[in-house]
Specification:
heterodimer, A: alpha+beta, Aminopeptidase, Immunoglobulin-like, 3 domains, eight-stranded mixed sheet, five-stranded antiparallel sheet, about 25% strand, B: alpha+beta, 25 strands, about 25% helix
């Protein structure tokens, strides 16, 4: 006689406490996002960038305001002994952070790419401000946790803020490195000759002997003289970035602080320095990436990674090298879905493959987190030149009338003149250089070009934060469905159920399965007095005898591939015994504590 | 049968200080190094390298006489990165002890230590090496646990164990219709993979001795240690392989050794004792030029140097040990292909494969194949077949490739064991009732049987290896400023000089130049403040200088300085440093 019991959609998570935290006075659901009638608990000026102590202070303010959600720990120290802090965001009432799938977010591995720090801060702040007022955020926090590292490279960030730099410098960490192979370390940095805190350009007037000429309508702009045997030569030459030959070797600025790239330091597809500039003598050579790798390695519940960079407007995924081949197709489904959503959420950003659409990267961070650890990972390159005018036609109009080659400079000056009142540009001014003689120094400030102007920061960090939340919401979520018990006769019962992953990211990615990363997922059944005769995964929903039996320990079905992107696994056990009930659980590194009680 | 402990006991650290090239544990190494340093305070200094996960020290002994002037070259000697080569730890210690002791009386040793620094790291992998001194005796390359090798959700739950309680981890074999192994027709004690193409049907399953602790009908398939220091270096590191570890240089010994190399830029040559060998056969090569990718072999020009050094080695030592050519993730590969250092692996001994077949071998041949006997009960001590490397894929694959009628390597090893009366190295197959597997046999090569030379040969090996090591000091690149001359052109001095390397090795190998890791020689023209450089470079970096008289000419024009006030300064990390004033010439 068949005794069929059906349990409809049994959700996995631990029971939720009836109590919800009190709402902040004046704040309502939806802030930030909707603008009227709300105030956040922590006011943060989203119209500037913050040096490292300021950035940490802001994280600390959020932690102080939401002590039930945020806790930080120090995971290591930089070369100059700055703290590397991870802020964990978790609603502990729904379980400890390490028992939920978690998203890792960091920024600023390149010291000059500062807005990654603010984007990480915004994401954490947004989640906290909305944890009790926005249903979707509350739901997310029930299922997931976040680990947020404000900066992978606090030394580089600090040097960029505190010292003279340009938009591209201070990318490196600051461990002394002999860039010019002369046995001396960091002895010939760029020099802030005019003392204005910026490393800009030097140009020299050489009438009739130069390679460049001035734009006749805008003398700030130098344009290259086109190759021409008949015409006039230029009047100007460019002589490089502000600097001196500090070590007297006949070269200028060839050995500045550091001289490596901590986003080439990661173990997967790592290649030595002669193949990949900045790689260092071995993977994780510097203390910052080593501390981060140790943390991530220990937190096998991390199921999503975002590492914020600038610039160019990209949503990047690996592989970093052509030789890696393509990622497993089951993982690409999740990647592509998130990436294409991202292109719509982030105007002017493109979803790109690192080696194919950008350039080859050996040993990149997100390559390690995916190829080494099997975590779906993105690097967003924040800010894009197209965002200045937000329209190619308008930009072209602004650059109109430029002499050959000067259109882009015209556009930037137009924007700088009209929208920043010229604040972004250091006007050319005379300087007596010990080697070059009389030169002019001038150019854009360090905070122009790779970071947005103040009034566009908030939009940038909000859109990117929402991309992260979309990514976090795609982390695997497993439920049991259609639990059925069938009496087969002779005291043998069949227990059938469907294990469903509701979300886009597999419980174990194809990459994790391929690399045998961590532990396989386990679907287990147990009950007092229950004997499990056989068990396995059904390959046919209509023919229950088509079953891939697990040879040993059928009570503990191992799933190297877990449950795929929005996928399902149909499980059947044959059991006997006096047990009245059994408990079925699904456990894995990215999925914990899913259980259902089955009446036998 | 001789007790295997006869092989083991010589290894105890307590009695090792005078034994030559005997296995010695990490604590014994520390004691011995400290003693050398205290007995020769002007020559020897102990330097820390790393501390293992097991809390054991990795140390280096620096041997150098006189002032350690800038540019003085050094040789780094490292032993037993793999783990089971503890006798080479004893060998390296013996070299350190003997060199220090002979400095005062031996002109060759004096010349070596006066001009060259030696760093000797006798035991690079103390945790794995500890297995040599423990019970049960087993060969161990791994130190740290990491992976769930058998993917059952439990890590390290089913490692080797001494099921018959004889104090050794040997090999299990069981008759099984799914078995892939057969007895070698040349010597039924040795096991070879059945070759289906030849109509051979497998009869035996082989495992390392152990229990099936997790009941999966596999034995020792998920050992408690996976990560091998000797596979944890950053060149050819195999991501996701159990022996490689979660990332290159994650093991403290590997990182400590790498950091030691990075910190000691005076090291020009690395000599590594253990399983690998570069001197018996030409190393794997690649063209000198071409491509920006990682190096995949020794550039042809460098390979000539290795071949020549191999000749010198064979002339001096006469050894013909067989090395393991697989260098992925090895310390040597990192030194050579990423640091660009001239790196020499030496396997000072391996179990000979060239022992002549005695007539008695016919006897083994004629024995009935093991399977035919297996149905009946076997008497204890009955001659049976075995394989020291059950479960060792590479060795199994090699055997599978053997030519017809040619004995397997293991059969060849048994010839030597029989001829030399080294019977403790092979344990006869013996029936055993296994708690999970039922009727099995346990036996095969004893741990370390193929690794450690007979005690009677060790003193000679130590003397030969020391002589070879001592000879290397004279081979190192030594760069000098030669023919420094100044000619008066009338107010302006023409200063000329050459850099020359009269020694055998070049300033940098081709691998070194391709990696860009070794710092080039730097030549700086030092002038008094009143003088002016009219032509030439104030500083020249020289990246390439051949050995055996390779030269690089340099030239400057200087105004307002007497030649005696001009200095040509040479500075290198590891091939000399000096200041020379040009002589006036016409």
């Amino acid at each position: 006689m068949n005794d069929v019991l059906t349990l409809a959609l049994v959700l996995a998570a631990a029971p939720i406490s009836a109590q919800t935290p009190a709402r902040v006075a004046g704040a309502g659901p939806g802030f930030p996002g909707t603008a009227v009638g709300h105030a956040p608990k922590v006011e943060i000026p989203w119209n500037r960038f913050h040096d490292y102590p300021e950035l940490l202070a802001l994280f600390d303010r959020v932690e102080a305001a939401f002590p039930e959600l945020v806790k930080h720990e120090v995971i290591g120290h930089s070369v100059e002994n700055r703290e590397l802090r991870v802020y964990t965001v978790n609603d502990a009432r729904t379980g400890p952070a390490n028992e939920k799938p978690a998203m890792w977010i960091d920024g600023n591995v390149h010291g000059n790419e500062v807005q990654g720090g603010e984007a990480a801060l915004y994401t954490l702040w947004y989640v906290c401000e909305n944890a009790s007022s926005n249903d979707k955020v509350a739901e997310l926090l029930k299922d997931a946790a976040f680990y947020v590292l404000p900066s992978q490279n606090p030394d580089g960030r600090s040097h960029w803020f505190e010292r003279a730099h340009n938009a591209h410098s201070s990318r490196t960490g600051v461990m002394p490195t002999d860039d010019d192979d002369d046995g001396r370390f960091d002895e010939d940095p760029a020099d802030d000759l005019d003392g204005d805190g910026q490393i800009t350009q030097m140009r020299k007037f050489v009438p009739g002997q130069g390679t460049h000429r001035q734009d006749p309508d805008d003398p700030r702009i130098l344009v290259p003289v086109p190759p021409n045997d008949e015409g006039r030569r230029g009047d100007w030459i460019l002589v490089g970035e502000e600097g001196l030959d500090d070590d007297g070797d006949g070269r200028i600025n060839e050995d500045d602080p550091g001289g490596y790239d901590m986003n080439r330091a990661w173990p997967s597809s790592w290649a030595p320095e002669h193949v990949q500039f900045g790689a260092g003598p071995y993977p994780l050579y510097w203390p910052e990436p080593r501390a981060i790798a140790n943390f991530i390695q220990r937190h096998s519940n991390i199921a999503a990674v975002q590492s914020f960079h600038n610039a160019g407007g990209m949503i990047l995924r690996g592989p970093g090298t052509e030789s890696f081949g393509e990622y497993p197709s089951e993982d690409l489904r999740a990647y592509d879905e998130l990436g294409r959503d991202g292109e719509k959420m982030l105007p002017f950003y493109k979803y790109m493959v690192i080696w194919k659409d950008l350039y080859t990267v050996w040993g990149g961070f997100v390559n390690w987190t995916y190829e080494g650890l099997g975590i779906v990972s993105f690097t967003n390159e924040l800010w894009n030149d197209d965002q200045y005018f937000q329209d190619a036609g308008r930009a072209e109009e602004a650059g109109k009338g430029a002499v050959l080659g000067g259109g882009f400079d015209r556009q930037r000056h137009w924007f700088d003149d009209k929208l920043l009142m010229g604040a972004g540009f250091v006007a050319w001014h005379a300087f007596e250089h010990p080697l070059f003689g009389k030169v002019e120094i001038g150019g854009y400030r360090k905070d122009v070009g790779r970071v947005p102007p103040t009034f566009m920061i908030e939009e940038m960090v909000h859109r990117n934060a929402m991309f992260c939340l979309g990514h976090a919401r795609a982390m695997p979520k497993v439920v049991f469905e259609d639990v059925q018990v069938t009496e087969l006769g002779e005291g043998v019962k069949a227990v059938d159920l469907v294990v469903r992953n509701l979300h886009a990211i597999p419980t174990r990615t194809g990459m994790a399965a391929r690399g045998k990363v961590g532990a396989p997922d386990v679907i287990a059944i147990e009950g007092a007095g229950l004997t499990v005769i056989a068990g396995g995964v059904r390959s046919d929903r209509f023919r229950p005898e088509r079953i891939e039996l697990q040879e040993r320990h059928p009570e503990r079905l191992l799933r190297e591939r877990g449950v795929g992107s929005r996928g399902e696994v149909r499980v059947r056990w044959l059991v006997r015994g006096k047990a009245e009930k059994a408990v079925v659980t699904y456990g894995g590194e990215k999925v914990r504590g899913v259980r259902v009680e089955v009446r036998l | 049968m001789l007790p295997i402990h006869a092989l083991v006991l010589a290894a105890s650290s307590l009695q090792s200080s005078d034994a030559r090239a005997a296995p010695i544990d990490a604590r014994g190494v520390s004691v011995a190094l400290a003693r050398i340093a205290s007995e020769h305070p002007t020559l020897a200094t102990v330097l820390p390298v790393a501390e293992s996960r097991g809390g054991r020290k990795v140390e280096a002994l620096r041997l150098a006489a006189g002032e350690r002037a800038p540019g003085r070259p050094a040789i780094l000697v490292v032993a037993n990165v793999e783990g089971p080569w503890s006798w080479t730890t004893g060998l390296a210690l013996d070299e350190a002890r003997e060199l220090a002791a002979r400095y005062a009386s031996d002109a060759g040793v004096k010349a070596l230590l006066d001009g060259t620094t030696l760093y000797i790291v006798p035991c690079a992998n103390p945790d794995a090496a500890e297995a040599r001194f423990g019970t049960p005796l087993r060969e161990e390359r791994a130190g740290a646990a990491w992976m769930d090798d058998d993917r059952d959700g439990r890590a390290g739950e089913d490692g080797p164990s001494d099921v018959d309680g004889d104090g050794k981890i040997l090999t299990l074999r069981k008759l099984d219709p799914e078995g892939e192994w057969i007895a070698d027709p040349a010597d039924a004690r040795a096991m070879v993979k059945a070759d289906r193409a030849k109509g051979e049907r497998g009869q035996w399953k082989l495992w390392v001795e152990g229990r099936d602790s997790d009941g999966d009908e596999k034995v020792g398939e998920d050992p408690s240690a996976d990560v091998q220091v000797g596979r944890n270096f950053a060149h050819g590191w195999r991501e996701h392989a159990p022996e490689a570890g979660p990332w290159a240089m994650c093991e403290p010994e590997a990182r400590g050794l790498a950091d030691f190399v990075l910190a000691h830029r005076d090291v020009q040559m690395v000599v590594v004792y253990g399983a690998q060998d570069d001197l018996q056969e030409k190393p794997r090569t690649m063209p000198d030029e071409g491509g920006r990718g990682a190096l995949t072999g020794v550039p042809e020009t460098d390979a000539k140097l290795y071949v020549e050094l191999g000749k010198r080695y064979k002339d001096l030592v006469g050894a013909k040990a067989k090395g393991d050519g697989d260098d992925h993730g090895s310390f040597q590969a990192w030194c050579r292909f990423q640091r660009g250092l001239f790196t020499v692996s030496i396997a000072p001994w391996s179990l000979p494969l060239d022992q002549e077949a005695p007539k008695s071998e016919e006897q083994h041949k004629d024995e009935k194949p093991a399977d035919e006997r297996a149905a009946g009960e076997k008497a204890a001590g009955e001659k049976a077949a075995g394989d020291k490397a059950a479960g060792d894929k590479s060795s199994g694959e090699k055997k599978a490739e053997k030519k017809k009628d040619e004995p397997s390597d293991d059969a060849k090893r048994l010839r030597w064991i029989d001829a030399k009366n080294e019977s403790a190295r092979f344990v006869a197959w013996k029936a055993f009732q296994h708690s999970e597997l039922g009727a099995v046999e346990i036996g095969g090569f004893a741990p370390y049987a193929s690794i450690e030379p007979p005690e009677s040969e060790r003193a000679k090996i130590a003397d030969d290896q020391r002589a070879f090591l001592a000879s290397l000091g004279g081979s190192l690149a030594r760069v000098h400023v030669v023919d420094a001359k100044a000619k008066d052109l009338g107010g302006v001095w023409e200063v000329k000089a050459a850099l020359e390397d009269a020694a055998w090795l070049p300033l940098t190998t081709v691998a070194g130049r391709r990696t860009g890791a070794p710092r080039p020689a730097r030549v700086t023209l030092k002038l008094p403040a009143s003088a002016k450089l009219v032509a030439g470079e104030k500083q020249t970096l020289v990246r390439e200088l051949a050995g055996s008289g390779g030269r690089k000419e340099l030239e400057w024009l200087v105004l307002g300085a007497a030649p005696s006030s001009i200095e040509i300064e040479l500075d290198t990390d590891n091939a000399g440093a000096e200041r020379v004033s040009p002589a006036i010439t016409k």
